[in-house]
Write a structure and sequence with these properties.
The complex is a heterodimer.
Chain A: E1 7-16, E2 19-29, E3 34-38, H1 45-53, E4 60-65, E5 68-69, H2 75-80, E6 83-86, H3 98-108, H4 124-137, H5 152-164, E7 170-174, H6 182-195, E8 200-204, H7 208-214, E9 217-222, E10 225-230, H8 232-237, H9 239-246
Parallel strand pairs in A: 3-8, 3-9, 6-7, 7-8
Antiparallel strand pairs in A: 1-2, 1-4, 4-5, 9-10
Chain B: H1 7-26, H2 30-55, H3 64-79, H4 85-107, H5 112-131, E1 142-143, H6 159-182, H7 184-201, H8 206-232, E2 234-235, H9 242-255, H10 262-280, H11 284-298, H12 302-311
Antiparallel strand pairs in B: 1-2
Helix pairs in contact in B: 1-6, 2-6, 2-8, 2-9, 2-10, 3-4, 3-5, 3-8, 4-8, 6-7, 7-8, 9-10, 9-12, 10-11
Classes of the chains: A alpha/beta, B mainly alpha.
Chain lengths: ~250, ~325
Amino acid sequence: MNEGALLQVNDLVKNFGALRATDHVTLDVQPGEIHALIGPNGAGKTSLVAQLSGHLPSDSGQIFFDGQDVTALPTHARVRSGLARSFQITRLFKSFTVLDNVALSVQARSGNNFSFWRPVHSEKALTVQAMAALHELGLQDRAQDPASELSHGEQRILELGLAVATQPKLLLLDEPMAGAGPVESERILQLIQKLRADVAILLIEHDMDAVFRLADRISVMVNGALIATGTPQAIRLNPQVVAAYLGEEHA
Amino acid sequence: MNHKTPFWVWGLVLAGAIALPLFLHARDMDFYVSMLSRMMIYGIAACSLNLILGYGGLVSFGHAAFLGIGAYTVGILITEGVTNGWVGFAIAMGLSALVAAIIGAISLRTRGVYFIMITLAFAQMIYYLVNSIKAYGGDEGLNIKQRSDFGLGLDLKNDVTFYFVVLFVLVLSLVLISRIMASRFGRVILAIRDDDVRVDAIGFASYRYKWVLFVIAGTLGGLAGALMVNHQNYVSPNLMHWTQSGILMVMVILGGVGTLTGGLWGALVLLILEDVLAEYTLHWQFYVGWFLLAVVLLAPKGLAGLLRRKSTRKGGHA
């Protein structure tokens, strides 16, 4: 077991009937690290994220986060302890404005939410913090627009922003650039670069250029199991990885 | 959220609601005053259902159970000699809250169609339970010898007085609902309607919020029931039959799902339609069906949405 790891996953298993989606996965994320998880479609990356975030119960194995066993904790409790995720398929509050989307993340970690009488719009602190977050994201000009009116790329940024605004210690990013155009992908990549100063990241991404630019370490998943973990350089040269996933192009 | 009805409109509506019974009374048309009271009571019931169905996005198909519990509690208490309205209404609401807490705790663990079926099943259980209580009328229902006594010189037997009591409770309920929905809690509820998985993923235990909302809605439903038994001097198990839950849902859909006053407008329109059409035909429901169809197709946000569409064009997806 790795001392000092922010996230330590031990021997994690998830079965869907006869299919083993997560096959004895052991991995860790160090403080301040970007750890990328790559692998072909259907390798089980999203299932693993769902197990880590608490959306999917695990069949066996443990998840330690920040020194605490979170294996049995529900999602919201994990988020409260600093483990937040973004989604591969955008999940926004579409009837809210962009500002109110982020303000809800701020609200989740501040004050008493079983408050029934005081109008939330009168709480300056929420708006101020949410607006600051929008500036970080570069979405400040869209603050008052309904989230449903954002472009796809902007929705991907807000998707990321909802998770960031919870002020996590570790971000689980499930294909943050999925479906975004080249310009927006670059914006997201810059954002992640900026985030790495404050937060550790477990990054799932299919864009290999982004992965190799961002990651401190890379793990490769095939058929639910990790076949290799190492520095980008080591992964690039790993014959098993090249055969299973990268092909000659990135070698 | 970003569309607000101007304050003077509410003032005007309220002034009309105050003037109307006085006018009708002066013309010896107290019957209509009583009819309006009934509509407003259904309005309170429908608005309370709209809390879970409209704002929470949870299709509860057993809301009439809470009306029944409220009505029977007050009815039984009066039969047993507890005529104090404050006591009766407090117990009625407390019991409705308790039952809502139990039903909610179980049914909110399911989603979609299963939630609809479980809430329906609980309501039917209570319906059959009440049917079997022979001491309080069983399937024949329960007549009350007098109405609740609130002191303060309020004589609920007087149609106009009763009307104003109901109007007061209605306004209070609407203020309460509007404050709740604008609060931190209400914001979480609206977010849950959009995407409850995401609500959990940013750190809220969405289940607890749904549960509290369910209890609030059940309590208000019980309040409407307590008024109902006073209005009819009678309560029968039919008040909690599943078709009653259906009628409340129709009112909400007609008036406007997830709007503050939608339940009220739905109740007014449906009951007026029923009264008017029933004058001409036994098959009034046939025509109500067409009307409902037209509203759903032409005004997806109900009558309240139709009124609002003129004043605000912003928001895009209205």
